[in-house]
């Protein structure tokens, strides 16, 4: 294989992307489809699933909440039945969780955030493990966040979950490496898209400023003076799934520049 061929995930790779109907997950799913992979996605938003399916008729789309073990069982029934196995799992599903000082957060909000963002990844990997170990070339890519390395004031349940994902990744890399499964985490910075639009809008409304002013505050706090694009994350996922990523496991890889805002 040439150097450039080794940068490309192999044709026919069987891939599952959680929360693949919109945002970063949709960019990852679209990138794998373009690379010739067989791709399944799950999402809780059925309208978004329908939209993604209409744009990408080759995708296998399943409605499933990653924190619901029974829904995840049904998702894997579809994956096994359709693909006969799995080579790459991208654990992308996550919610921002509540914003506020710890004493103002409800127990339900705290539990729900950790249930989706951290336990959800465990639930999915627990079900995927057998299939991945049967593959000759398997990779798990867990989407964490820069909040999983530096913390994030006013977002402690989110940050704790994302930090937990880094520990989960390191542990599973040790556990599954001898059986041929690479496990890595990606830590995106501030990513352009619907979620950041919601965050910026809320901040603008709370402070009486315009969307553009708050957006500029975020951008100017990043050393490269630009937000991360969903495609930047997707390309790193492709790289980790390709032969070029064959000797990378147990790593927490930032797709970001220095960010001062957290
Ligand atoms: P998003 O808020 O735009 O949501 C993407 C998708 O997740 C939606 O289609 C939604 O329906 C789905 N989803 C939500 N809860 C789900 C669940 N329980 N089960 C299945 N699907 C579910 O998110 P995004 O910005 O695309 O972020 C994707 C991942 O990247 C998340 O884990 C997020 O924490 C992480 N991340 C995002 C940013 C950012 O700036 N956007 C930065 C760092 C990390």
Give a written overview of the molecule.
The protein is built from ten helices and seven strands. With 262 residues, it is an alpha/beta fold. The protein has one domain: NAD(P)-binding Rossmann-like Domain (Rossmann fold), CATH 3.40.50. Helix 2 packs across helix 10 (230-241) and helix 8 crosses helix 9 (211-220). The structure holds nicotinamide-adenine-dinucleotide. Nicotinamide-adenine-dinucleotide (NAD) binds at residues 18-19, 21-25, 42-45, 48, 65-67, 92-95, 116, 120, 143, 145, 188, 190-191, 193-196.
Notable features of this structure?
globular; membrane; binds nicotinamide-adenine-dinucleotide; Rossmann fold; alpha/beta; SDR_fam; seven-stranded parallel beta sheet; 262 residues; Sc_DH/Rdtase_CS; oxidoreductase
Q: Roughly how much helix do the residues carry, as a percent range?
A: 40-55%
Number of domains: 1
Ligands present: nicotinamide-adenine-dinucleotide
The gyration radius over C-alpha positions equals 18 Å
Broad shape: globular
- Unreliable spans are none
Order of helices and strands: HEHEHEHEHEHHEHHHE
Neighbour order of strands in the largest sheet: 3-2-1-4-5-6-7
Family: Belongs to the short-chain dehydrogenases/reductases (SDR) family.
Pfam family, one: adh_short_C2
Protein name: SDR family oxidoreductase
Keywords: Membrane, Oxidoreductase, Transmembrane, Transmembrane helix
Q: Gist?
A:
With 262 residues, this protein is an alpha/beta fold. Helix content is 50%, strand content 14%.
């Amino acid at each position: 294989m040439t150097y450039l061929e080794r940068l490309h995930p192999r044709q026919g790779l069987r891939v599952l992307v959680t929360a693949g109907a919109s945002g970063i997950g949709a960019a990852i799913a679209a990138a794998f489809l373009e690379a010739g992979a067989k791709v399944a996605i799950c999402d809780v938003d059925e309208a978004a699933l329908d939209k993604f399916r209409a744009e990408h008729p080759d995708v296998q789309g399943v409605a499933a909440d990653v924190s619901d073990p029974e829904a995840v069982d049904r998702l894997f029934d579809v994956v096994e039945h359709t693909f006969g196995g799995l080579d790459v799992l991208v654990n992308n599903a996550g919610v921002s969780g509540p914003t506020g000082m710890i004493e103002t957060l409800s127990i339900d909000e705290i539990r729900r955030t950790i249930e989706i963002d951290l336990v959800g990844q465990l639930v999915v990997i627990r079900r995927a493990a057998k299939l991945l170990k049967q593959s000759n070339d398997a990779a798990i890519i867990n989407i964490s966040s820069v909040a999983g390395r530096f913390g994030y004031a006013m977002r402690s349940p989110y940050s704790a979950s994302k930090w937990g994902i880094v520990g989960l990744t390191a542990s599973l890399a040790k556990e599954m490496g001898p059986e041929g499964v690479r496990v890595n985490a990606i830590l995106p910075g501030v990513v352009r898209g619907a979620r950041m639009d919601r965050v910026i809008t809320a901040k603008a409304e709370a402070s009486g400023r315009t969307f553009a002013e708050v957006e500029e505050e975020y951008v100017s706090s990043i050393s490269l003076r630009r937000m991360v694009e969903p495609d930047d994350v997707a390309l790193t996922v492709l790289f980790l799934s390709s032969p070029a990523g064959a000797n990378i496991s147990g790593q927490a890889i930032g797709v970001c520049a220095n960010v001062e805002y957290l």
